[in-house]
Amino acid sequence: xxxxxxxxxxxxFPYWRTKFISYFDIGEYTVKIDLSTLTARESVYVDNVLVxxxxxxxxxxxxxxxxxxxxxxxxxxxxxxxxxxxxxxLRSKGIDIDGDHWVFPxxxxxxxxxxxxxxxxxxxxxxxxTLL
Length: 132
What we know:
By secondary structure, this protein is α+β, with helices and mostly antiparallel strands.
């Protein structure tokens, strides 16, 4: 399992993160899953060829596809679309091969960010009042 990191902007504003992309290697093939928590769309590609696509309005979904006559499944488990985490597991013949674990940041913009925006608004109002 890989714990994917988020950018600094996403740590400050964690709800801006709506797209998650994971890659898995199966021999010479590359499997890509593209998730959007905003539109609930999930797409699975094998070497940039779309093999499965669906909208997941629930918390669990399974994408099945074949590579060289072997059946593979990508299991998506979204605990919460806004707070996470998201688990993606690649499985073949009932055995987990690989997986990703997306962890949402626990820090949320709180009191300090709110006070910062309030101060900016307050000083902007004073400046515009004195100029007009």
